[in-house]
C-alpha cells in the first residue's frame, strides 16, 4: 500500500503493527514517512528522532532533515542532512534537503554545491536541478538557469508545475523574452490562481511589455486577494496615471490617495499625485503633493525639477529658483534645470542673471538650439543687439540656415540700422518661405527705411492680400501714406490696424496726430486715451494725452494727466511745466511756482519756464520777482513775445495806453504773440475809443485764437449792436457752445437773431436752454412748442404743451393744441380727453366742440358724434363744418332722409359748396332715383370741374342706364384728372367693349395692367381680357 501511495491503508496497517509492537523500527519509519506526506512534520520529527537511536541509517537522517526543513527548522535540518551524508555521502535526498536548508539560510554557494553534488550522483534528480536553476536565476546566471529549466521541463511533477512555470517565467523575462515569460506566468497562475508571487511578477512583466490593461487587471486581482497591501494601490495608481481618459485619471487619483492614506510618509505616492494633478492642469494641487514628496525625501530630483517648472508657470519665480537650485546642486550639468532657472530669472526681469544661467546651460549643451534661441531673444529684449546678432549667427549655423533664424537676424540688423545686410538676410528668409507675413512685413519696413516706398508698399500689400487684418502691414502702410502726404488713406490703414489689435499704441498715436492736425481734438483725445490705457506705465503717452486735453480746454483732466506723467518720471520737465501752466490757469499760484522750480531744476535752459514764472509773479503783484524771472527768460531768448506782452500789461494797469500799445505791437512783431496780446491791443484801442481799430484787432484776435470766447464775445456784442444778425448768430452760437459770459443774455440775443431769421429748430434749442434757467416761462414754452410743430417733431411739441399745462393748468390754448396734436398722431382717446378738458374750462369753444364731434365720428361713437354736431349747430347755426359733419355722419349711418335734410340746409346756406351735391347724388342713387342722382352729380361738377369722384359716380349711373357714350365721356374726365385711376380705365374698357371698340378696350386694359397693383383683381381680369381668343359662335358666348 505504501509503495502504491495508498497512504490511508498503509497507515492503518502500520498503526496495527505499532499497536502490537511499539518498538517496530520499520513500521515507525514508514509511519513517519506518511506523516511527512500528510504535512504532520512535528509528529514525523518526534518519531524519526526516536527510531534514529536504533535505525541510524542515512535514509533515517535524510528523512528527518526533510521534516525539519519543511517545518522551517533550517539549522537542525542542516545538521541531520550532514548526519545522513556521514552515513552515506551519496544520499541524494540528504544533499537535496541540505541544499534547500542552505538556500533558505541564504548560503547560496553552499546550496549550489549541494544541488550540484546531488545531480552528479543522480542526473535524473530533477528537483535538485530545479532548485539549482532557481539559485542560478537569483544569482543572475539566467542563461544557465534557462538551460536547466529547458532540460527538466518534461520531468517536473504536477505539484511543482506552478513554481516551475513561475521561475522559468522569471528567467525568460530576464533574458529578454518578455512575451515568453508572460505566457509562463499565466500558466503558473492558471494552475494556482492565488499564486500571488506569480501575479506580482506577471504585473511587472506586462508593464514592461506595454500591456497596461492586462497589468491593471492583474494588480486588481492581487487587490482582491490582499486588499490590505498598500503597494498594490501604488502600482494601480501609477498604471492608471499612464492610461488615457478622464476616468483613468480619476481612478489613478483614487488609488494614489488610498495609498498615501495608508503610507503617509511614502514620497513616491505624493510624487504620482503631484504628477496626476499636473497632467490635469490643477497646478496648485500638484504643487501641494510635490511639496509633500520632497518633505519626506528632499533629494528627489525629478520632483524638485517639476516644482521648479510649476512655480515658474504660476509666476512665482523665487520658489521656482529655490527648487531648481536643489536639482543643480545634485547635478550642476543639468542643462534643463539651468535653462529653467534662466527662464525664472527672466520672468523676474533679471535679464543679466538670466543671460548668465543660459550661458551656463549652453556650456553643458553648446548645440542646444532652443536655449540658444532663447538667449538670443533675451539679448534682443534687453537691448544687447550686437550680442543678439552674434547668438543668432551661431544659431543660424546650428539650424542649417533655418529661415526663422535668418528672419530674426535680419530684424536685429534692421534695428542696428545695418539696412543692406538686413535686406539681404530677409530676402534669403523669403526664398525659403515666400508667403510668410512676418517676413514680408520686415522686408517692407527695411525698404521703407531705405526710402524705397513703392517696394515697401508692395511688400505690405502682399501681406494684406492674404491677411486683411495684419496689424504690422496696416500700420506700416499707414506710416507710408502719412509720410507721403495722404492723411485720409493713412487714417484708413491706422484704423484697420487698431481694429486688428485694439492695444496697438503706435496706431492710436499716429491717428491722434492726424486728427490733431485737423483740429478734431475729441477724436484725437479719444485715441490717445486708448493708447495710454494700453500702455499705463508710459509717462510720454500721459504727457501727450495731457497736451491734447489742454488743447481741447479740458484743463482738469490735463492737470491730473500731467501730474501722472511727472509721477511716472520726475525728470519730465515738460510735464512739470504743463502742470504749472494749468495750476496757474486755476489760480493755484503756489502749486504752479512749486512745479516750475522742479522743472527749472530738471531743465535749467528752458526759457518758457522762467517766462511763466514771471507771469505768475506778475499775477501775484510781486513785480520785482516778476521782472527778475522775465529777465532770465529774455536772457535765454530775447524774442520772447510773452515777456514783452507782460511788460505791456504793466503799462496798461497804470493806464498808459500809448505805451501799452507800443509794447503789445513789439510783442506782435516777434510773430509769436498769442491772441491775448491782440485782444489786449484791441482793448487798448477801445479804451481810447478808436472803435474801427478795436474791431480790426478783435477780428485778428478771433482768427489767431481760433475763436476763443473772450475776443468772440467782444466781437459778437459789436455785431449785435450794429444789427449784423448773421455774423452775430455765428459768434453767439460759438459762445453758446462754450457757455461763457452772461449765458442767459447770450441765449436771449441768439434767440432774437433766430426769431428774426425764422430758424425754428435753433429757436427750440435756444429755448430749451432758456427754460433750464426759467422753466415756467409761458412765452418761451409756447414758442418752442410752435417751433417743434413747425419742425414736425410731435413728441417734442407734446412735451412742451404738457409743461405749459403743468405750470398753467387752466390754459385752454395749450389743451387745444395738445388735442390737435394727438389727433394728427391718431391717438384719438388722448385727443378726446384734452378736448373734454378744454370744454371744462370753456364749454362754448366752438373749435373744441367741433373737434370732439369729429373724434366721436372717427371712433364710431355715432350717437355722440351726431349729438355733438347738433349741439354746435344750435350754438352756431351758420357753422358749415358742424352741419356738414352732421350730414355726413347721418349719411354714413344710412339715415338718408335725415342726411338729405341737412345737406339741403347746407346748400341753402352755402350754395357754392360742391360736397353737399355729391352726397345728395349718392342718396338719390341709393334710393334708385337715377335721374335725380345725375342732376346732383352734375351740380357738384358745376361747382368743381375736376371733382373726380363726381365724374366717376356719374359715369357709373350712365352705365347703369345703358347711356354708354355719356359714361365714356365721364370716365375720360376721371382719367383726365387722375390718369393712374386703374378702376376708371377698366370700366372705360368695358364701355368700349360694349360699343364694339375692341382696340380701345385693349388699350384701356393695358393701362389697367400698367397702373394697378400686380395682385389686383382688376389687373388679373385685364390680363385675361387681352389674351387672344379663338373665334366662336354667337351662342357659345353665352
From TrEMBL:
Pfam families: TPR_11, TPR_15, TPR_16, TPR_19, TPR_8
Keywords: Repeat, TPR repeat
TPR repeats (start-end): 58-91, 92-125, 162-195, 196-229, 267-300, 335-368, 369-402, 471-504, 505-538, 539-572, 607-640, 641-674, 675-708, 812-845, 846-879, 880-913, 948-981
PANTHER family according to UniProt: LIPOPOLYSACCHARIDE ASSEMBLY PROTEIN B, TPR REPEAT-CONTAINING PROTEIN PA4667
Record-given protein name: Uncharacterized protein
The species this protein was found in: Candidatus Wallbacteria bacterium GWC2_49_35
Amino acid at each position: 500500500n505504501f509503495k502504491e501511495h495508498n497512504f490511508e491503508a498503509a497507515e492503518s496497517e502500520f498503526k496495527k503493527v505499532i499497536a502490537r509492537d511499539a518498538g517496530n523500527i520499520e513500521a515507525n519509519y514508514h509511519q513517519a514517512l506518511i506523516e511527512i506526506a500528510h504535512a504532520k512534520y512535528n509528529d514525523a520529527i518526534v518519531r524519526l528522532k526516536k527510531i534514529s537511536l536504533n535505525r541510524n541509517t542515512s535514509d533515517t537522517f535524510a528523512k528527518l532533515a526533510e521534516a525539519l526543513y519543511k517545518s522551517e527548522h533550517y539549522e537542525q535540518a542542516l545538521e541531520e542532512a550532514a548526519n545522513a551524508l556521514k552515513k552515506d555521502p551519496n544520499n541524494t535526498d540528504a544533499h537535496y534537503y541540505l541544499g534547500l536548508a542552505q538556500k533558505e539560510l541564504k548560503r547560496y554557494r553552499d546550496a549550489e554545491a549541494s544541488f550540484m553534488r546531488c545531480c552528479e550522483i543522480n542526473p535524473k534528480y530533477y528537483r535538485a536541478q530545479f532548485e539549482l536553476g532557481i539559485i542560478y536565476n537569483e544569482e543572475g546566471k539566467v542563461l544557465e538557469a534557462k538551460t536547466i529549466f529547458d532540460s527538466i521541463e518534461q520531468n517536473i511533477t504536477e505539484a511543482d508545475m506552478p513554481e516551475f512555470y513561475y521561475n522559468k517565467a522569471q528567467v525568460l523575462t530576464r533574458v529578454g523574452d518578455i512575451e515568453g515569460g508572460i505566457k509562463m506566468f499565466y500558466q503558473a497562475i492558471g494552475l494556482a490562481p492565488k499564486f500571488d508571487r506569480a501575479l506580482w511578477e506577471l504585473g511587472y512583466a506586462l508593464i514592461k511589455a506595454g500591456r497596461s490593461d492586462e497589468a491593471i487587471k492583474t494588480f486588481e486581482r492581487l487587490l482582491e486577494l490582499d486588499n490590505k497591501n498598500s503597494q498594490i494601490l501604488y502600482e494601480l495608481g501609477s498604471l492608471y496615471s499612464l492610461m488615457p481618459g478622464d476616468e483613468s485619471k480619476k481612478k489613478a487619483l483614487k488609488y494614489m490617495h488610498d495609498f498615501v492614506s495608508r503610507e503617509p510618509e511614502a514620497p513616491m505616492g505624493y510624487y504620482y499625485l503631484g504628477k496626476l494633478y499636473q497632467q490635469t492642469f490643477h497646478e496648485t494641487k500638484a504643487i501641494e503633493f510635490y511639496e509633500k514628496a520632497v518633505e519626506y525625501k528632499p533629494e528627489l530630483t525629478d520632483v524638485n525639477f517639476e516644482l521648479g517648472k510649476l512655480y515658474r508657470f504660476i509666476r512665482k519665480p523665487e520658489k521656482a529658483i529655490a527648487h531648481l537650485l536643489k536639482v543643480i546642486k545634485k547635478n550642476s550639468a543639468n542643462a534643463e534645470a539651468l535653462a529653467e532657472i534662466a527662464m525664472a530669472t527672466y520672468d523676474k526681469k533679471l535679464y543679466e542673471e538670466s543671460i548668465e544661467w543660459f550661458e551656463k546651460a549652453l556650456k553643458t549643451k553648446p548645440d542646444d538650439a532652443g536655449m540658444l534661441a532663447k538667449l538670443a531673444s533675451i539679448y534682443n529684449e534687453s537691448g544687447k543687439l550686437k550680442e543678439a546678432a552674434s547668438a543668432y549667427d551661431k544659431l543660424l549655423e546650428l539650424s542649417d540656415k533655418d529661415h526663422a533664424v535668418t528672419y530674426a537676424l535680419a530684424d536685429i540688423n534692421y534695428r542696428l540700422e545695418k539696412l543692406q545686410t538686413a535686406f539681404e538676410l530677409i530676402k534669403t528668409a523669403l526664398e525659403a518661405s515666400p508667403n510668410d507675413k512676418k517676413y514680408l512685413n520686415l522686408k517692407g519696413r527695411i525698404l521703407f527705411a531705405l526710402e524705397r516706398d513703392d517696394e515697401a508698399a508692395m511688400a505690405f500689400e502682399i501681406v494684406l492680400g492674404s491677411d486683411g487684418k495684419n496689424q504690422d502691414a496696416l500700420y506700416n502702410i499707414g506710416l507710408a501714406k502719412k509720410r507721403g502726404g495722404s492723411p485720409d488713406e493713412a487714417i484708413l490703414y491706422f484704423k484697420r490696424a487698431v481694429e486688428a489689435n485694439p492695444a496697438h499704441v503706435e496706431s492710436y498715436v499716429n491717428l491722434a496726430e492726424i486728427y490733431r492736425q485737423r483740429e478734431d481734438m475729441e477724436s484725437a483725445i479719444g485715441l490717445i486715451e486708448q493708447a495710454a490705457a494700453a500702455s499705463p506705465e508710459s509717462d510720454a503717452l500721459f504727457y501727450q494725452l495731457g497736451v491734447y486735453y489742454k488743447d481741447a480746454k479740458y484743463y482738469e483732466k490735463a492737470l491730473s494727466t500731467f501730474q501722472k506723467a511727472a509721477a511716472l518720471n520726475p525728470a519730465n520737465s515738460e510735464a512739470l511745466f504743463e502742470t504749472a501752466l494749468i495750476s496757474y490757469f486755476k489760480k493755484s499760484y503756489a502749486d504752479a511756482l512749486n512745479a516750475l522750480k522742479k522743472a527749472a531744476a530738471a531743465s535749467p535752459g528752458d526759457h518758457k519756464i522762467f517766462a511763466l514764472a514771471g507771469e505768475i509773479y506778475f499775477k501775484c503783484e510781486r513785480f520785482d520777482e516778476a521782472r527778475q524771472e522775465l529777465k532770465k527768460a529774455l536772457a535765454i531768448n530775447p524774442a520772447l513775445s510773452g515777456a514783452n506782452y507782460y511788460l505791456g500789461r504793466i503799462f496798461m494797469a497804470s493806464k498808459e495806453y500809448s505805451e501799452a500799445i507800443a509794447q503789445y505791437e513789439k510783442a506782435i512783431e516777434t510773430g509769436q504773440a498769442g491772441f491775448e496780446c491782440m485782444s489786449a491791443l484791441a482793448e487798448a484801442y477801445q479804451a481810447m475809443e478808436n472803435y474801427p481799430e478795436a474791431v480790426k484787432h478783435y477780428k485778428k484776435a478771433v482768427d489767431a485764437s481760433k475763436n476763443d470766447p473772450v475776443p468772440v464775445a467782444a466781437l459778437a456784442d459789436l455785431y449785435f449792436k450794429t444789427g449784423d444778425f448773421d455774423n452775430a448768430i455765428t459768434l453767439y452760437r460759438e459762445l453758446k457752445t462754450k457757455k461763457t459770459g452772461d449765458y442767459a443774455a447770450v441765449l436771449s440775443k441768439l434767440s432774437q437773431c433766430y426769431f428774426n431769421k425764422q430758424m425754428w429748430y435753433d429757436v427750440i434749442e435756444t429755448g430749451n436752454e432758456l427754460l433750464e434757467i426759467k422753466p415756467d416761462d409761458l412765452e418761451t414754452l409756447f414758442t418752442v412748442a410752435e417751433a417743434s410743430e413747425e419742425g414736425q417733431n410731435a413728441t417734442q411739441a407734446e412735451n412742451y404743451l404738457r409743461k405749459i399745462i403743468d405750470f398753467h393748468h387752466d390754459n385752454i390754448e395749450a389743451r387745444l393744441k395738445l388735442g390737435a396734436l394727438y389727433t394728427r398722431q391718431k391717438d384719438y382717446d388722448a385727443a378726446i380727453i384734452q378736448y373734454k378738458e378744454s370744454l371744462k374750462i370753456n364749454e362754448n369753444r366752438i373749435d373744441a366742440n367741433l373737434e370732439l364731434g369729429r373724434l366721436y365720428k372717427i371712433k364710431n361713437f355715432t350717437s355722440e358724434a351726431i349729438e355733438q354736431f347738433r349741439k354746435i349747430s344750435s350754438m352756431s347755426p351758420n357753422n358749415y363744418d358742424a352741419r356738414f359733419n352732421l350730414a355726413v355722419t347721418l349719411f354714413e349711418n344710412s339715415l338718408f332722409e335725415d342726411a338729405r335734410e341737412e345737406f339741403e340746409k347746407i346748400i341753402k346756406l352755402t350754395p357754392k359748396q360742391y360736397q353737399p351735391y355729391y352726397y345728395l347724388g349718392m342718396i338719390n342713387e341709393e334710393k334708385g332715383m337715377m335721374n335725380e342722382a345725375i342732376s346732383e352729380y352734375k351740380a357738384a361738377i358745376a361747382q368743381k370741374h375736376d371733382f373726380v369722384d363726381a365724374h366717376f359716380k356719374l359715369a357709373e349711373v350712365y352705365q347703369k342706364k345703358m347711356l354708354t357714350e355719356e359714361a365714356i365721356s365721364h370716365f375720360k374726365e376721371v382719367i383726365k384728372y387722375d390718369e393712374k385711376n386703374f378702376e376708371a380705365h377698366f370700366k372705360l374698357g368695358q364701355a368700349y367693349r360694349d360699343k364694339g371698340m375692341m382696340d380701345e378696350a385693349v388699350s384701356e386694359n393695358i393701362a389697367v395692367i400698367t397702373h394697378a397693383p400686380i395682385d389686383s383683381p382688376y389687373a388679373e381680369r385685364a390680363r385675361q381680357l387681352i389674351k387672344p381668343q379663338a373665334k366662336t359662335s354667337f351662342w357659345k358666348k353665352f
